[in-house]
Design goal:
alpha+beta; Immunoglobulin-like; five-stranded mixed β-sheet; five-stranded antiparallel β-sheet; 2 helices
Length: about 270
Amino acid sequence: MTENFYDRVNRTLSWKRVLTFNVGLFLVLIIPLSVNLAQEDTENRSGAAGEIDVPAVTPPPSYPVEAPRLDRVSMFFGKKGDTIVLIGNNFGDYQWGSSVYVGNVVAPADAVVRWSNSIIEVKIPETARSGKVWLSVNGRDASWDGNLLLYDEISSTKVGLNRISATEAQFVVDGATNYKNGLVELGYVSEPLNLTAGENITIESQTQGADALGKKMQIRFSVGNNNTAQRTIFSVSHPGIGAIDIVRAELYGESGNILPLFADPLSMKVLP
């Protein structure tokens, strides 16, 4: 019997072949779509995870065996909100329960920018005033010899170093007539340093020292007739090897009060 067209179609498209075709088509379409959706979900979750701030993990306290030592504070002057740097050793790798005092007040935790074993960066608190800087590490204190001076550029005295030549510089004071004495601490590389007092200036003492950053010399001086707003306190000659910089400076009034002062960052250091 001759097979017509419909019989051939019915024989060819059996239910098994139709089912197999549909299953294949399903896999071809669904698998790539599922993979694509899975990748998008992973990317979304990864992006969301990147937006979450993971809190820093602080290990248990392990304080240094040796007592803390505070060598320098840079800068020795500033305004509230400015960041100063404490340099020394045995501070501890983390703050833990230690405290740092700036301008006679304790700095809150959010004012501490960085704490390491030899360097602490801290913002000057709003309640600070001109005064001492020190820290307490595990019940042991370390103090800086100098004073942090809070200033404003309108009413404060300006100090600085003027380069005269490759081997000579001058320490100058500008804008003050009511001081009687003071001190300057210079950091330097090569020696000797030879000082020559300015007009009506007496060099009371020169004390050499050193700290973690190098050699220092502290110069104390007194002022005679002080009616000049700008004057050279002393000239310093040196071998011309390395820089000379102002580590700190202080001026004292008639009653012994410390005057507010500041320095242009460009005049804090002179090069040969």
